[in-house]
Design brief:
The structure is a single chain. The chain is mostly helical and about 550 residues long. Helices cover about 55% and strands about 0% of the residues. The protein is built from 21 helices and 4 strands. A hairpin with a 4-residue loop joins strand 3 and strand 4. Helix 3 packs across helix 5 and helix 6 packs across helix 8. It is flat and about 125 Å long. InterPro entries: BRF2-like_C (IPR054078), Cyclin-like_sf (IPR036915), PTF2 (IPR053340).
Length: about 550
């Protein structure tokens, strides 16, 4: 029989509100009076004060509700750090709920899963988001995140056009807009850099510099080049780290971009003087040439320079008529001044592009009576370059640089080189990009490297055949041959001797495969491990 905990009374009445017993003497409610123990397994009835699945004292949420709350909180945090809008964050939540069937999750795998859904959601909306940036936010490895992305894509069965290809132009615009390095740049200059960057990105796509490669390094390279063209000082190492790109790869893409510009510059009259070291200073002229090349129709004139419909005679005649514009008199080839020769070269470069617009003012009378042929004009320009070379060798170039520096003469002040009217400055499809002519048509670098590698293997195969034939048929060997005779017996020789003979492990493997009668076409492919397993070790044969 229950006893009151307060007055030790033994008479009780049932309270109508709480359904608990109350002492009839003192009126105190008796705790745990209506507690019902569970029975019948996990599906049995639940007591009033004890409930299965509660998280402890002071919390009314169940385990599932707490898990869902923490999962949504994680999604909001990742979306905020990635700069998502509320609608984009809701799309990620819906994707997570759909894949997990409303169960969500917790732990390290769920962080990677949320990052994968964030990437897929942006990619599905044709908004570029680098995997490396997502991996840095969630604190995961890029390869682990990539595997999770593939699982999400396969589960949702995303295919074209619902899952478009990665848009490197979108990535460039996003990087330029969000980068701290360009936060203080004026809006007009940012728009100018945006168009120039899109133009160079399209050119890089046409030159196959982006084919089969990660997009961030080429974006970093283009951003650095565009910044230099607009007078913004930025290091490629700092920018690469900011956008989570590999520094070494970014430097390599930057050098490849400069090398491509050097190849384009060879079509200009002074193109042979342009190298990787000075191509940035000549980049305004090169890019202007590329822009007009893309805008112009194919010209049938054989004597037009660079294929852009410019007459070399008009160009040089205008160079003879026009001065730089800083108050100097007419330039002449008879003047021995180094400064005048430097100006003539700059004027030639500037008016090479301005002659097409017909905006050159005449300052010499009866110049048209010269009637110089194109061959004569080319000879005059070659002679001028020789004179510049003599000035450099005689030490007069230093005086030219000092006087130019004192006058404040700048190369970029000669002309407004950027037009921005080319179609390559806007978004284009890959097919339209490949149809444009920017002065350079190349094959993919991977194809070139593959051809070079196959040629090297072919040379190694021929050398190995000669060495084997020289040992198997010594009477046929010539005494004056310089072919290395080192075979597989030289494996135990010293590294110094093998290096002197030019024999490495690849030569020994090729010799072994040839001795086992493996076809040369298979050896050229370079799958040495597979060929050794099949033909030498007889792996898998019972």
């Amino acid at each position: 029989m229950p006893i009151c905990n307060s007055c030790k009374g033994k008479t009780f009445i049932r309270d109508d509100i709480t359904n608990n017993l109350a002492c009839s003497t003192c009126g105190r409610l008796q705790e745990y009076d209506n507690l019902v123990d569970q029975y019948g397994g996990i599906n049995g009835p639940t007591g009033t004060f004890v409930s299965v699945g509660t998280t402890g004292s002071g919390n009314v949420y169940s385990y599932k509700e707490t898990k869902i709350y923490e999962a949504r909180k994680l999604i909001d945090d990742v979306s905020l750090r990635l700069g998502f809008s509320p609608s984009e964050s809701d799309d990620v939540k819906r994707m997570v709920a759909t894949i997990t069937e409303g169960e969500y999750g917790q732990g390290n795998w769920f962080n990677v899963f949320v990052g994968a859904c964030s990437y897929v959601g942006m990619r599905r909306d044709n908004k570029s988001l680098p995997i490396s940036e997502v991996a840095s936010v969630i604190g995961s490895d890029a390869y682990e995140l990539g595997r999770m992305i593939m699982r999400v894509v396969n589960f949702l069965d995303l295919k074209k056009p619902n899952f478009p290809e990665f848009d490197i132009v979108n990535l460039f615009e996003r990087t330029l807009r969000n980068s701290h390095s360009f936060a203080d740049v004026e809006g007009d200059k940012v728009q100018r850099m945006k168009k120039q960057g899109i133009f160079l990105i399209h050119c890089a796509m046409k030159w196959f510099l982006t084919t089969g490669r990660r997009p961030l390094p080429i974006v970093a390279a283009v951003l650095v080049l565009v910044a230099e063209l607009n007078g913004i000082s930025i290091r490629i190492e700092e920018l690469a780290k900011e956008i989570h790109a590999v520094v070494h790869t970014s430097r390599l893409r930057y050098r490849e971009l400069l090398q491509a510009l050097v190849k384009v510059a060879q079509a200009l009259p002074w193109g042979k003087d342009i190298t990787v070291k000075n191509v940035v200073k000549n980049a305004p002229f090169v890019i202007q040439y590329m822009e007009r090349k893309a805008m112009s129709k194919p010209s049938k004139k054989k004597d037009s320079e660079g294929g852009v419909g410019l007459d070399l005679g008009d160009v040089v005649r205008d160079c003879l008529r026009k001065d730089i514009g800083d108050g100097t008199d007419m330039m002449s080839f008879e003047d021995d001044s180094e400064t005048e020769m430097e100006k003539l070269k700059l004027a030639h470069q500037s008016w090479y592009f301005e002659a097409e617009d017909g905006g050159c003012a005449l300052s010499v009378d009866n110049v048209d009576k010269l009637k110089l042929s194109h061959e004569c004009l080319s000879m005059m320009y070659s002679k001028f370059l020789d004179e510049v070379g003599n000035v450099k060798s005689s030490g007069g170039l230093k005086e030219v640089r000092e006087r130019k520096k004192r006058r404040g003469f700048e190369l970029h002040a000669c002309t407004e080189w950027w037009n921005g009217k080319s179609a390559l400055s806007r978004r284009l499809l890959l097919k339209e990009i490949l149809e444009k002519d920017v002065g350079l048509d190349v094959v993919p670098p991977s194809f070139v490297n593959g051809c070079v590698t196959v040629k090297k293997r072919r040379d190694k195969i021929n050398a190995a055949k000669l060495r084997i034939d020289k040992i198997m048929h010594p009477l046929n060997a010539h005494s004056g041959d310089s072919i290395d005779t080192c075979t597989s017996e030289d494996v135990h020789t010293t590294k110094k001797r093998k290096r002197a003979l030019g024999i490495d492990w690849e030569d020994l493997i090729i010799e072994t495969l040839l001795l086992h009668r493996v076809k040369e076409e298979e050896i050229e492919k370079g799958w040495y491990n597979v060929l050794l397993e099949l033909h030498v070790f007889n792996s898998g044969i019972v």
